[in-house]
Amino acid sequence: MRGVVPENTHIRVFDRLGRLMLENTGTSTELDLSVYPAGLYLIEVLIDKETHVQRIIKQ
Question: How many structural domains is the chain composed of?
């Protein structure tokens, strides 16, 4: 997952048990999930005061 995001963006990736796996803050973000096992993950993106959550399945 790649992209340029606003300066005040905070991204966190959780596994299906709710454990924090990865955390990034900044304007240019690349999430490398290749080191994690297959399964369900939640990506939480916080921009200003808005939170967006997306479920992904890594195969």
Answer: 1
pTM value is 0.79
Beta-strand ranges (E) seen in 1-59 are: 2-4, 9-15, 20-25, 28-30, 39-47, 50-58
Q: What is the pLDDT along the chain (59 residues), one digit of tens a residue?
A: 556 666 778 899 999 999 999 998 877 567 888 999 999 999 999 988 899 999 999 99
Q: How far is CA 47 from CA 11, 15, 37, in A?
A: 9, 21, 28
Range of the domain at 54: 2-58
